[in-house]
Amino acid sequence: GQTIRLDDYRPTDYAIETVRLDLKLDPKRTQVTSTLSLAARDGTRGGTPLTLDGDALTFVFAELDGKPLSPDDYVATPDAFTLKRPPEGLFELTIGTETNPEGNSALMGLFRSSGTYCTQCEPEGFRRITYFLDRPDVLSVYTTRLEGPKDQVPVLLSNGNPIEEGELADGHHYAVWHDPYPKPSYLFAAVAGNLAHISDTFVTASGRTVDLRIYVEPGKEDRCHWAMDSLKRSMRWDEVRFGREYDLDIFMIVAVSDFNMGAMENKGLNVFNDKYILADPTTATDTDYAGIESVIAHEYFHNWTGDRITCRDWFQLCLKEGLTVFRDQEFTSDERSRPVKRISDVRTLKAHQFPEDAGPLAHPVRPQSYREINNFYTATVYEKGAEIVRMLATRLGEDGFRAGMDLYFERHDGEAATIEDFLACFAEATDTDLDTMLLWYNQAGTPTVTATSSWDAGSSTFTLKLTQNTPSTPGQSEKAPMPIPIRFGLVGPNGDDMEVERIEGAEAAADVLLLSEHEQTVVFHGIGARPVPSLLRGFSAPVRLEADTDTADLLFLLAHDSDPFNRWNAAQTLAMDHLKRSTEAIRRGDTLAADPEFIKALETVATDTGLEPAYRALALQLPAESDVFREIATDVDPAAVSKARTTLKGEIGSALAGTMRDLYDTLQDDGPYHPDPESTGRRALSACALDYLVAGGTDGAEELAKTHFDTARNMTDRLAALSTLAMNRLPSAEPALEDYAKMFEGDALAMDKWLSMQAMIPQPDTLDRVRELMDHPAFSIANPNRVRALIGAFATGNATGFHRADGAGYHFIANIVIELDPKNPQVAARLLAAFRSWRSLEEGRRTLARQELERVAERADLSRDSSDIVSRMLG
Ligand code: DPP
Ligand code: ZN
């Protein structure tokens, strides 16, 4: 495959001012007629050939300014259409193509999901519908006409506002939609089918009434109300926090059951994976409710950061994604709990982005080149991209950040912009030199920051020696130092933050200092007693911090730090230190007991009713096995890590059995279910207590969990109890799993949870179970949600199973990738990325994993998606 490079960017020779698309819907032979009004851009030489992108298209006809073109005038292949000698001035090109929605198993372009016609165009799906300049910097005004048999497709939707509809002969009807906002092709959408909807209205800040609709399969309307509620709150929040109003008369969301991604922000017509729409208390968990709220917000916020201002090219993907993730994170923080949200986001970042950044798939937030852009919808572009925006906000303060955003919206509305454009707005609005911020976009790898400290009584100074070092990553061996904002506090002996008279050696504002060199020595004056430094508060930069804080310091921070993030982080660091040492002991055939002081400190947090229950639940959660892998980094023995973690959990559970039982008892609530943050937190803490009771082997714990499962009145409680039974491999797990399957038979989303849970049971023979479940009626290899639920959960959520010492887990996943790749390359390539940390494994597993990767790589006809991943992985 060909490599696309950022440095090669140049605008197209021609602009497409308007697009008239006409779709005559048919399951196997949909007729697409596209009429483009084109004009050469300034500077294009007269007669320069025009080449439009295509992908697997069936060409039917072409006309120029309403007259048929002779075959001498153009070349049409499945992958491109070239008009050899375009006329001067404005001209109209009409092209007819034919496409087979039913045969479209890749779910890119026009496809069918349970009978509904639906599109997915980002990033390069529009070229599977018609020939086009299918890139984000070609902005056009679209008018779309949809036509089909009224009994099969009573609902016909596209972007913008509806302008016309009518009946035709032989039971057909049509609808015409017009989107006045110029947009790139990746934001085009069309949906047609037998859909029901719920509707509501929203009055914007300036008093316009917007019609809101959520479309679903008939019968599922009752499960859309939380999504609608989330949408209205998102619309209000964007007005209040960023001054952004919605701009069309109607905003529509459609939920479909076959979808590669979570959701898609098409202008005025978002298409969602139904997992992020449908919710009711019996089938959705608190996590599902929170996920729906944040994905609804994310896609809605794209209306300004993505749609009104889009990306110049796909290298700038983080311009819309990082920024929009930041915005949805802020929304959740404002709606729920800021510390809890921050901790969850950092856990996600470390679980997904850090390993990506440390392995063969590492790439800059703004890559310099790609072979397949679909493989760059990554944790790095999204989550690290959001962290960079957060660092800007941290450095510039609330007002400065808002001023920069205001300028960005004002200056670039209606444009396709770059990261440089974005940074320039903040630099200008706040008169700050932000040139080195670009390094965060251009350099891959997670910097390690070290901090060594000393206090000098005589001079009342506290000295912090800081260094930063970013490891080499594929294609980048040398790294320049980056600007790293470190939010800090010096915690005095009484537990309060100390006053600092003056700071030398670093640019510092209030409680943030900027590490900008490889090495800096920072001196804090007026420090009359030895403080414990609390660094990187709120995780102010996406770095790995190695500080010289010892166990006593960490216990002190866990008890006293005024920053809730660092209090939590102190507990995590203590647990991680233990897990690493315990893993080593296990590999030596030894054991290592947990520190009673640490367990006691956990108990103090768990029972501190001054803290939110959700926060207490997070504090009690041990680092995941994958977190420990990451920290160990080389020669990882997954079985030893798993054993270390299970042992520690058991020790805590048994030491704190009485506390956990009290917690559990006081947290039960008989009121009606509501997914609000308070009751969500209560349920999370209760589930955590129950899990520790079981892990600790407490008398009666299994019965308690079984009763919790049987008497649950919502999915959150039911699933938590089932998970505890299953993950701890208790005898009651199997009958409970059977009961669950009977209860939710036929409910695909609820059955996904059942598939996932079984796939994650941490024992070697889980692989056999996963193979059997592939024959269960609840599973289908054609549906991405089912594949992610069963196979994805096994590959990424079951270290014990996937990393079986005999390599059977690797072999199984490689087989699935090979089977899936011809049908849905995107989903196959995603699955393949489960191997991304293979080089860190101990030698035996590393060899087995390499063999499987090589077996995949040797396949002829591998998709560009999978071949790109596998070659980078082996490269
Ligand atoms: N729909 C995906 C997202 O919102 C890709 N744009 O992140
Ligand atoms: Zn997005």
From TrEMBL:
Residues 445-547 form the Peptidase M1 alanyl aminopeptidase Ig-like fold domain. Residues 91-187 form the Aminopeptidase N-like N-terminal domain. Its EC number is 3.4.11.2. CDD domains: M1_APN. InterPro entries: Aminopeptidase_N-like_N, Aminopeptidase_N-like_N_sf, PepN_Ig-like_sf, Peptidase_M1, Peptidase_M1_dom, Peptidase_M1_pepN, Peptidase_M1_pepN_C, Peptidase_M1_pepN_C_sf. Keywords: Aminopeptidase, Hydrolase, Metal-binding, Metalloprotease, Protease, Zinc. One of its GO terms (molecular function) is zinc ion binding. SUPFAM superfamilies: Leukotriene A4 hydrolase N-terminal domain, Metalloproteases ('zincins'), catalytic domain. Its cofactor is Zn(2+). Belongs to the peptidase M1 family. This is Aminopeptidase N. It comes from Amorphus orientalis.
